[in-house]
Design brief:
Chain lengths: 328, 258
Amino acid sequence: MTDENGIEVKGLVREYKKGPRAVDGIDISVAPGEIYGFLGPNGAGKSTTVHVLTTLLPPTAGTALVGGYDVVKDGPKIRGLIGVALQEAALDPLLNARDHLRLQATLQSVPKEQRDPRAEELIHRVGLVDAADRKVSSYSGGMKRRLDLALALVHSPRILFLDEPTTGLDPQSRTDIWNEVALMRREAGVTVFLTTQYLEEADVLADRVGIIDAGKIVAEGTPAELKAEIGRPSVHAIPRTEDDRPKIAAFLAQFGEPLASTRDVAVRLREGLGLTDIVRAVDANGVDIADLELHAPTLDDVFLAKTGRTLEGAAEEADTVEQEKRRR
Amino acid sequence: MSTATTQVGAIARRSIVRTSRQPASIIPPLIFPVALMAVNAGGLASSTELPGFPTDSFLAFALAVPFIQGALFSTMNAGTDIARDVQTGFVNRLALTALRDWALLSGQLAGIVVLGVLQVVFYIVVGLAAGVRFESGPAGIAVLLVYGALVALSFGALGAWLAYRTGSGETIQALFPVLFVFLFISSMNAPRNLIEVGWFQTAATLNPVSYMIECVRSLIITGWDWQALALGFGFAIVLGVVSFWLAAGALRTRMTRT
C-alpha cells in the first residue's frame, strides 16, 4: 500500500475497443504533497490516465493505487478523498456558482452546517464574489475554470487531479490558476496530479514531470533534471537574407549538431563550447549574421530529444489525425 | 435525514431550479395541451350528441388529455436535460462524488414528479374555471394528483432511459413525435366503443395510453369506476417499473465508474 496521499501506478494499460492502446504500460509514483506534471500533446494518453486514476475508467491491465486504495476495488473510497477538475469544465449553465457549490458539497457529504460557509470561502478564494449569483452561462472561460477548481476543493480533498486546467485560458487567468494550485500545496499539503500540454506550466508548477507520448512515458524527473539530460545549450543564428542560410548552416556545423528550425539556423553546441566561442569565430571569419541567440535547454528540447518531434508539432499531428477521423 | 435522502433531495432541487429558470420548459407543457383541448372542445362539441357518449360536456371529456400530453412534454424535457448532462460531462462530475446511481435517477425523477404535479394542479384549475364538474369530488381530485405524479414518474423514467441510452438531446427530440403517435391513436377524442374505423378502434384498444386517459376521464365524468382506475394505475405502474429498470441499467452503463 502506498502512502495515504500518494499515487502509485505500475504497468497501467488502457485499451479501447476500436483503437490503439491509449495508455501503454506506464509506471508513475507521486509522493504525498508533490505536484506532478503530466506533459504531452493531444491524444498522448494524459486524460485517459486521469480517467483511470479517478475511477471513471477501469484499467485494461496493471495496477493503480490512489491514496493507498486500488482504483478497481476501492472506487468509492478513492472518490471520497480526491478532488477532480476534468478537461471540460462540466458545469450547468442554468445554475450559479453558489448552486454548484452547495450541490457539490451535499453530494460530497460535507456536513450541512459547513456547506454554506465552505461555499462562501471558496467563492472568495477563487475570486467569484461578484459573479456568485449569476448563471454560469454568462461566465468567461477563466471564471468557469476557477469555479471548476473550487468545486474540486469543496470537500477538502487530499489528492487533486487537474486535467489541462488552463487550456484555452488567457495569460492572466492561467496565472491565477497556477497561484491557486501552488497555494493549495503550500497551505494544505495537497498532492496534485496535473496534466498539461504547456511546457511553461509544467516548468513553473511541477516538482516532477512525466512526459507521455503515444501512451508511453518517454521521460521523467524534475524539470531541472530533464533539461540537464539534454545538457548543452543551442545557438540560434538569424540570417539577414534567406540566401545566407546555407552558408551560415555550414559555418555553424563545426560547433555542434544542427537542429531543425524554420525561423533561424541552429546547432546544439558541443561540450565545452559557449556563445563567446561562436561570436569570436563569426568575427574572425567575417560571417554576416543579423543576430545570434543562446537558448538554454527547455522541456520542449527534452520532448524533441525523446520523441524526435517538438511538442507543438506533435499537437498539430494529433489534431490532424483527429480531423481525419471526423472526416471519415 | 439519511445520506441517500439528502442526495435525492439535492438532485431533485437542482432539477426544479433548472426547470424554473427555463420558461421554455414550463410554458409549453402548460399552454399547448390546454390550447389543444380548447380547440378540440370547440370543434368536436357536437360529438356529445352521439348516442352512448358518456357526458354532455366535451370539455369535461377532453380534460383528461392534457394530463397525459403534459406528461409527454415532461418526458421530452427530462430526457433532453439528462442527455445534456451526459453530453457536457456533468454526469462525470456527479459520478465523481459519493452519489449512488439510484439516488441520481430518483432525484432526477423526483424533480419531474414535482413539476408533473404542478402541471396537474394547473389543468384542474383550468377545468374548474371552465365549469367542469369533477364527479368524483375532492377525493377524486386528490387521486388525480396522485395519478399525475405516477404518470410523470413513469414517463419521466422513460425519458431518462432514452437519455442515458442515447446520450443525445437531439435523439430525444426526434423521438418525441413517435410518443405523440401513441396519444393520437388512443381514445383521446372519442370513447373506444364509438370509434367506427375498425383498425383505429383495435389500435386504441391495444394502446396503454387509452387506459391512462380513461382512468383520468372516469374520475372527471363518471365518479368512481374501479375498473378504469385499476387499468389506468396498472399500466402506469408497469410503464414506470419497466422504464425505471431500463433507465437504471442505462445509467450504470453510462457511469462506468469502478
